[in-house]
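Checklist before submission:
- one chain only
- standard amino acids only
- sequence pasted in full

Submission:
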Amino acid sequence: MSNPLIFPMAAHVGLTALLYVLLTVVRAPSIWGLGRRPDGSNPWANVEPRISANLSNQFEWPLFFYAVCLLLLEQHATERLQLCLAWVFVAGRLIHSYVQIFTANVPLRGIVFTINFVAVLLMWLWLLVVGLGIAPPL
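Returned file contents:
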């Protein structure tokens, strides 16, 4: 039986793949001429930098998410708490992507990022606490 922690990891990979597809679509008018406006401009020119920036974000803090997930998988130490935090992280990444790409609401984006950040920090903290034997697993 597979570890359920695989599913939030796969969901984040899916989000990242979707962002690659979106970036390809919005760059198509500039690169291949598909969907250009009559004046030759790209109708998606204003959203392309936001998607690109968000895609870059998927390779920054999520690195620590994958590291803690792999350690949990290796140690067979996945518990409900880590699984819930992993899903909080993924849901937060989805919301963060939406806010960054489709709005200019930087304060909301900061709040959502903080939730993602704290979820991964708590995953690491719990791994260290349980790994050091300070607290029993939940």
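Reviewer check: The chain has one domain: 6-131.
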